[in-house]
Amino acid sequence: MNLPVYLDHHATTPVDPRVVNAIVGSMTVGFGNPNSVDHSFGHDAARAIDIAAQHVSRLVGGESDHVRFTSGASEALRFALAYAAARVPGRPLRVASSAVEHPALIEALEMGERAGAMTVTWLPVNEHARISLEIVARTLAREVDLLCVMAANNEVGTLQPVAAIADLARGAGTDLLVDATQAAGKIPLQVDDWGVEYMVLSAHKIYGPKGVGALVSPAVSTDPLPPGFDVHESTPNVPGIVGMGEASKIAKAEMASDGVRIAALRDRLQERLLATIPGLVVNGDIANRLAGNLHVSIPGVPNDAVVANVRHAVALSTGAACASGADAPSHVLRAMDIADWRQQGALRMSVGRFTTEDEVDRAAAALEVAVGMVKHSMQAFG
User: Which Pfam families does this one have (predicted)?
Assistant: First the structure.
């Protein structure tokens, strides 16, 4: 019996067996408390964290002493905002952010606005979810403390021109926060060379464990802990951190080859769906997207009905995992201002490291059948 084909790698990735081995070793052999450095067990655990920080920093072109491990990307985003706010005491933090950021950031910014701690300017995107450099430049001319940009969108996979945006931010004297949760391990990143002040990462998007992420920023080594975070810290999650380090090391080594193979599988899936499902369109920026991303819309077919019909054959989604099951179209698709039918018929698929050609073909066949069944049912009861 075949297991369902997993095409939801933007939501989470399966943990690489090599990462599992590293985690198990940290739990069975390197189990010491890294805060107990009076003996070798604690020293070895602390050293394991240092090594993990080196792997994470190398993945994004940063410094290991700029890495702060967190419970995930959401906490890392909050850390970055807190550091930025602490640098402008006595007044609200002036923020500019793209309209297609992750809800974790959008909610934090909206909360800051309600509390009077921030003012936020929302930057529009085009129909491909891409930010205009001209709009960025005009916005930065209005005196902005912090610019927030997602390197790769978690729904339609669009890649933003981060290096060019970083140049504009640096010229305006604006700090840049880059959410690289989806981009890390898939495209080259250069946090130091680009002058990115804050970069956010997540382990479970790069075939590592859940519950661990990282903020990469000079503020980690130069600034005091910001208000709200300046309390006694808990014991580090050594197995999770070790797992993130190992996942980062593998991603750095295999990024290029993975990208080629994954893009070929994505294209194979795309070609089959375009050939067998009438009217299907591909969303996002076709020329600038993540290798594994395939975001499509099917006319006249509710996306939730398709997902329900394939749930035992293919794992895919109607949008971001944080909004999975929501009835309304995502904020990303609304910001793109695409036609209503494309929003209502949107499906997100994402190919990964362990996806096979056979799985892609099975998924395409299952989707073709499901769409046909949904259309037949709608006609019969319509």
Answer: Aminotran_5
